[in-house]
Amino acid sequence: MMRSLYSGVAGLKIHQTKMDVIGNNIANVNTVGFKSSSVNFSDTFYQTLSPATGPNATTNTAGTNAKQIGLGGLVASITTNVTENGGTTTTNRALDVAINGESFLVVNVNGEQYFTKSGALNVDPSGNLYCTTNNGIVQGWMADDDGNIVKDIATDLKIMTAKQTSAAPTATTAETILGNIDPNDKNLTPVYGTDDQGNKTTTIKSGGVPMTFSFYDKLGELYTVKMMVTKDEVADDAEENSLVPYTVRVADVYNSEGKSIFLKEEPQTDGSIKYVNSGAKITFGTGASFGVDDSVNGDGIENGVNTETKEFRLKSTQVPLLFNSKAGTFAAVDAKYTVGANGTEVTPNRTNKDYAKTCINFSVVQGDDPQHVGNDSTFPQYDAANDNGGIELDFSSLTQYSKGGTCETTYKRGGQDGKNAGNYAGTMSGISVDDTGKVYGKYTNGETKCLAQICVASFSNPSGLEAEGDSLFKASLNSGLFDGIGEEVSKTGSFTVGALEMSNVDLASEFTSMITTQRGFQANSRIITTSDTMLEELVNLKR
Length: 543
Description:
Blueprint: H1 2-27, E1 37-43, E2 46-50, E3 67-70, E4 73-80, E5 88-90, E6 97-100, E7 104-109, E8 112-116, E9 121-123, E10 129-131, E11 136-142, E12 155-156, E13 166-167, E14 174-180, E15 191-194, E16 200-206, E17 209-216, E18 222-231, H2 236-240, E19 243-254, E20 263-267, E21 273-277, E22 281-284, E23 301-302, E24 305-306, E25 319-324, E26 329-332, E27 359-365, H3 370-373, E28 382-383, E29 388-389, E30 391-394, E31 408-413, E32 426-433, E33 438-443, E34 448-454, E35 456-457, E36 466-469, E37 472-474, E38 494-497, E39 499-501, H4 507-542
Parallel strand pairs: 14-30
Antiparallel strand pairs: 1-4, 2-3, 5-39, 6-38, 7-8, 7-11, 7-35, 8-37, 9-10, 10-11, 11-12, 11-34, 13-32, 14-31, 15-16, 17-18, 18-19, 19-25, 20-21, 22-27, 23-24, 25-26, 27-30, 28-29, 32-33, 33-34, 36-37
Helix pairs in contact: 1-4
């Protein structure tokens, strides 16, 4: 009878433990990243009243089983359902991530590494990426200056340093000229210069249709280039052989203030401004650099510049531009074009580039006045020896149609692939995470830069992790230890950005377990009550 009392008490205790677990599960039904637990019971020690006996051939009797009475039950294990994912809820926050798979985020809490399924992330005032549910700093790998992830020991992700909150300016190294050159546009007719004897030269003095583009230097300053395009005077058989020659020349280059880089201002004592040659030069094509034509003389002109009106003329360095009507494309050549016997041969001066027949090169050379021109390190320079650098001007997208006798041209910074457009300096305007865990900074100049990558940890036995509260788990000998490096989430799953993994508690199952646990508790209570009544009756009999 006493044994029944012990069994009843043991039953009460284990069912109370199970009810505690159920209560904790239900309490965390809406906790981000919570993993439910379940309780398993086992029977306890047995008291043997008589051992088992075997059959007796002498007495011709059968064997008997052992007579045993158990002493109740005990809690065998409390298992955390780590491997079962909870449902996801959409938050639309750029820094919220739900982990698809059995891996965990690695976080640093007070110098110790923990693991969590909670992907509710934010940035603290120190620039660290942290988990809002437990204040743990998210760990992973930082990116180098070029945005490449350096996979080393997992460290705290500090993604908003002074260096990371700004995007350095980049120089423009490619331009795409767009639009249409109407061969019937009267403005295409050039005005040629004359020599000392009054004979017309091949140098274009004025005329042409404006063609502009803008570019950034290495400091992020914006400049605008004004070019002029004219149609060459050629023999009739040239056009008949499908090659229509044009000439492109630079007229001026303006800084962001609308001032020409070829001029510098010299304030005078009387308050007036005197304009003089800055010494800036342009390399257009692979030819020599050129600047203000200081051979021009006249009233008020010093070194080719009218000191009062700012009027000046650049030395005429001209670059041929050919339209092949058979191919329907323009081709730029750095050397004087040549028309072969069949009228189809054009030999470019550039030979070691894929763009040799479609692009020419433009670059700014240092002038005497760094205020407007900068220095050689500011502007992208052209290296004639290696045929690279500077700004590559691609004319291949131009067309030649009759369009009312008017040319219409525009441009796009960067090549046809959209790269090398350059940009001004920007500041960070936002942070986002992609499905691989890479953290990107977005900047006011339109740039996007990879800052870091979140690593994850996976375990051979994730159920062996020890729950620490705050949706945190700690590695144990049974779960396997963390290697300190981590791995990409793509090896075991992925991130769902703008969502969170919620609790994996199944309310229907929990309520069912609660009912059965309550019934078990009541039954064990009845055992104690009944055993007490029987014991009381036994005592009364002795009286």
